């Protein structure tokens, strides 16, 4: 299950290639449309739906793996806490999750533009950033298997951007 599953090259396609039955939620209609176009073009059934990770439309203990890459930090910290509880709820006992959080060391401090989905759908003004150990409070019922702080430089538009994240792989305890 992917939270924030939209855009033109959905990561769920990789899981699908390895035989996994996939599901995803995407809150932004434009990103969902891009993902659905990708699915039609490649004749894939990735099961990506319009939805909100703060209220996942799945029964408890449905999934063995949950994935949330570069999506959760568009929310406010209270909404991140709700989303993490939802991820925990839909994971099976022993299920794994991958989530990355934006670090306070990330240089992007801009506010979202007026048309940004995070601004009107999530009622947020800017990225939520976390201190190095702050996000661990979301993993009370998890065993943290791996934690890594990363700085990545990317080509973005006509320039380059740096992004600093704290990535977690965790296993649900019960």
Strands, helices and their partners?
Layout: E1 2-3, H1 12-17, E2 24-26, H2 29-42, E3 48-50, E4 63-68, H3 77-90, E5 91-103, H4 117-121, E6 129-130, E7 142-156, E8 159-172
Parallel strand pairs: 1-2, 2-3, 4-5, 5-6
Antiparallel strand pairs: 5-8, 7-8
Describe the structure.
It is a single chain. The chain is of the alpha/beta class and 174 residues long. It has a domain of 121 residues: 3-Layer(aba) Sandwich (Rossmann fold), CATH 3.40.50. The longest helix has 14 residues. 33% of the residues are buried. The model has no long low-confidence stretch (mean pLDDT 95).
What's the SSE pattern? Answer: EHEHEEHEHEEE
Strand content: 25-35%
Return Rg in Å: 16 Å
Instruction: State the CATH superfamily name of the domain at 52-172.
Output: Vaccinia Virus protein VP39
Mean pLDDT, to the nearest integer, reads 95
Number of strands: 8
Compute the number of helices: 4
Annotated CATH topology of the domain at 52-172: Rossmann fold
> So what's the CATH class of the domain at 52-172?
Alpha Beta
How helical, in percent, are the residues? Answer: 10-25%
Biggest pleated sheet: 5 strands, mixed
**What's the CATH architecture name of the domain at 52-172?**
3-Layer(aba) Sandwich
Poorly predicted parts: none
Structural class: alpha/beta
Distance between the termini: 19 Å
Shape: globular
Oligomer: single chain
């Amino acid at each position: 299950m992917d939270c924030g599953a939209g855009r033109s090259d959905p990561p769920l396609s990789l899981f699908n290639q390895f035989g996994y039955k996939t599901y995803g939620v995407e809150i932004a209609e434009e990103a969902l449309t891009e993902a659905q176009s990708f699915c039609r073009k490649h004749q894939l059934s990735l099961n990506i739906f319009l939805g909100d990770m703060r209220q996942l439309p799945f029964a408890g203990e449905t999934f063995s793996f949950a994935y949330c890459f570069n999506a959760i930090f568009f929310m406010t910290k209270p909404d991140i806490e709700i989303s993490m509880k939802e991820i925990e709820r839909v994971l099976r006992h022993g299920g794994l999750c991958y989530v990355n959080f934006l670090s306070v060391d990330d240089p992007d401090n801009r506010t979202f533009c007026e048309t940004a989905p995070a601004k009107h759908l999530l009622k947020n003004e800017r990225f939520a950033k976390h201190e190095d150990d702050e996000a661990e409070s979301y993993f009370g019922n998890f065993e943290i298997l791996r934690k890594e702080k990363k700085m990545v430089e990317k080509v973005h538009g006509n320039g380059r951007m740096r992004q600093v994240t704290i990535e977690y792989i965790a296993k649900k305890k019960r």
